Each structure stands twice: as structure tokens, then as C-alpha cells.
Amino acid sequence: MNMHAPAATSGELFWFKGTLVNVRLSWNAGEDRVSVVEHYMPYGESPPLHIHRNEDEVFHILEGSMLIHIDGKQSIAHAGETVLAPKGKPHSFRVESPEGARCLTITSGGDFETMIREMGEPALSAGLPPPVEPTPAMIAALTEACARNGIDIIGAPLS
Asked: Domain count of the chain?
């Protein structure tokens, strides 16, 4: 991946599912419970198809391009574009740019960020973690953590 890793961290770095996550603003910092997470992702990265029960999810693409799938419709989002995945609508994405992608994920309520903190691990460096093929146990753990945090996994990642 050629995406630039954070030079200086002004947040908390986590390795999460093959990606680097920087929690720039935690949901518990303000009364409106807004969370801003910066996500560094390699080419091909795709979360399972899922639904947020309690939070809209906003993606602001900073670098690269992503195929965005929301409620059965697909489009390509490029750097500088912002996309809304409304709560209650099935959605996923896939990083399309060979150099990877970097985006801000903005939610309110704390569900998404809490799930990242639960399933991620403190990053040992400001780069991507070593790639790991998900095992059935890892998939089950993610599904359970998502359910505890208002997110329902309903399908596979985009292929």
C-alpha cells in the first residue's frame, strides 16, 4: 500500500481487520456523541455487508477510490467525495485504488467506535498490520461484537 501513514498521531491508533484506524475524535468527547475515525485500507479491503441499527455512517474519502454499495445500489466514490450510508440500510464498500484508500468515517452514538475498540488492538506501528486470513472463529467474534454494538452483519464482503 502506498497510502501515507499518519506522520504524527493526534488520536489513538488501532489495527482492525487488516486496516489501520486512527480515532481522531471519540464519541465520548462531546454531548452529541460524534465519532471521527480515520481509516487506512489496502486495495481490496471490504467489510461484510451490514446494517447499523442506531447510527448513520458517513464516509469522506481523503485518498483513493472506493466502490460503495448501499441498499442494493453501487457507485464509485473518489477522493474529496462524501457518502452517507443511512442507518437501517444494508451497506459495504471495497477499496478499488491499487494504492489503497484513506477515509474518515463519521458516526454518532458510539456503536461503531466501540466495536472497533473491542475488536481492534493497539497498533504496534503507524502502518498496516500484517495480513491475516479470517478464520471462522474470527468471523464469529466480529459478528457477535457487531451485534452487541448495534450492527448486524447480513452478508459477505464485496468480491
From this structure: 1
HEC per residue, 15-54:
EECCEEEEEEECHHHCCCCEEEEEEEECCCCCCEEEEECC
Residue with cell 489501520: 20
Is there a contact between 112 and 79 (Cβ–Cβ < 8 Å)? no
Q: Bridge partners of 13?
A: 22
Is 82 inside a domain boundary?
yes
CA–CA dist 131, 150 (Å, integer)? 27
CATH number at residue 141: 2.60.120.10
Q: What is the pLDDT of residue 55?
A: 97
CA 61/CA 147 separation, integer angstroms? 26
CB 25 within 8 A of CB 134: no
Q: Which amino acid is at 1?
A: M
Instruction: Please answer whether residues 26 and 124 qualify as being in contact, where contact means their C-beta atoms are separated by less than 8 angstroms.
Output: no
Query: Which residue would you say has higher pLDDT here, 2 or 100?
Result: 100
Give the model confidence (pLDDT) of 134-143 as tens digits.
999 999 999 9
Task: Say how far apart CA 101 and CA 110 lie, in whole Å.
Answer: 23
On whether the pTM is more than 0.90, the answer is: yes
How far is it, in rounded angstroms, from Cα 121 to Cα 31? Answer: 26
